[in-house]
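Internal QA ticket QA-208
Title: Verify multi-chain structure generation after dependency bump
Assignee: T.L.

Test input:
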Amino acid sequence: MKIDLERISWVDIFLWLFRIAAFVLIVVGIYNTLAAGKYTSEQWVTLIFSGLAQGSIYALIALGYTLVYGILLMINFAHGDIYMAGAFTAVFLAEYFAENGFLAAHPFIALTLLALLAGGVSMALAVLVERIAYRPLRNAPRLVPLITAIGASFSIEYTFRGLYGPGFHAYPPVPALSGSVHIGRFEVPTVQIVVLIAAVVLMAGLYFLVERTKIGKAMRAVSENQDVARLMGIDIDWVIVFTFAVGGLLAGVAGVFNGLFRPQGVYFFMGFIPGIKAFTAAVLGGIGNVPGAMVGGILLGIIEALGPNLFLEGLGIPAANQLKDAIAFTVLVLILIFRPQGIFGERLAEKKA
Amino acid sequence: MAMLELENVHAYYGYIHALQGISMTVEKGEIVALIGANGAGKTTTLRTISGLLKPRQGRVLLDGEDLAKYKAHEIVYKGVAMVPEGRGIFAKLTVAENLDMGAYSRNDKKGIAEDLERVFTLFPRLKERRNQVAGTLSGGEQQMLATARALMARPRLLLMDEPSMGLAPVLVEAVFDTIQEINKKGTTILLVEQNALMALQIADRGYVLQTGEIVLSDTAEGLRQNPMVQKAYLGIE
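Actual output:
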């Protein structure tokens, strides 16, 4: 390949140096950490599983972003709060179940009911947000629904704050999930395994829905060309409502999963950071791409779980675990600079946007 | 009663007065050609019939019923299907999925399966490629797919927008043969074409559209003999 030297700009050179520097830092960090041998393989496996469980929650939320973007080319920035709404509502049912012993006696039924309630609340809220904040602006410039999204986000947050106060509500511990499972010689908390399996089942279900069912094909048709989809007899509004509903359902269920292994509990602002992280995950996988959101979410969970100990510590950064969020958002910035289309995404130029 | 009737239809794109009082009819069983230059309003006429664009004045009647109260997707359920301009296939869906979307408005599994066989007989090439992503088809195959997809709705009235666009001459012949075949099996066809020569060979009647108005209407034979049509659209001096 012949390289035309005159066409290489300073920006390109800078970006290449940046890539190389980032790569070197990560490699040196990992080498130092592993050479120091501070962590046992059991500890690494623990980190990987917590990353998988957290990542599967990101993936479930990320699917909501990616489905909506695929159809409307719009980022639903209220999605993090839709996730919060489900998790927050279900905590009251969880407390009730814990008090009357139902949670201990029939954990599976109780958790299913919690997931259904949270999913239902988030689904209804997602549909409501679409109806009020987005549908009237369907033909407005693309910045406008982005602004109403932020408005919707604040409305939901402060409604919950107004209703239930600014404090935390902790999910009660589930006795059946408090133990751990032995996988080979490794010990993994049961709750993480359950969350991971449940999330994978949900994602498989979604994949089946999108790929095989009539409504799933209609969703893909609408995302390609709305006018032609109308000519097939597809009711665009119904498909869009359905898409928001599915995204909301997954987010609500993810909210319960989150409550199960995060002892600090839920509060009105809890959706913000996971929302942006799930958005990061969706961008990482390629926004608009369903498998991309799944892979992006899990990958982000693992990067976040391993990153601090694996390379930040090796670089001699103190209190590396405090930098989890910094890692996630650095990932977002790096993808946007180097691969804006994400892992599975096509180049934006090819899209009608 | 005409199957389709347009009564003094006016339509706008923003401030552009694209259709300036169009009146026309399509009778059951006919092939009607709508010819005219680029920008004359041919596509706009089809978009207005299919409900993608609503007339600001005038009425579109299907079997005497005003379509104004129906949304575009509801009009499909009334038996109107369209082969859109530039084919408009779903490039990321497979050929089979595109055909499924064509039958979206129907629930009779048996009838859908029959029609699938029927379009595969009409277009054997599509059967070979049924599991291929539609974006990888050639232009001619995409045209076949767009036509087949519209047929999957089992329409009474088929609107076709420039089915010959961008095709090699030999394929154009094939497309027009197919249109005649579809018509013989009972589907009424409203055909929009720049290729006026071909369109007027297979049509029963035709309308000539100029800057949003119908300037001529006659039997296809009459239009072929008309000096103005010969000069402007058939390239005969």
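Spot checks passed. The first strand of chain B starts at residue 4 and ends at 13.
Status: verified.
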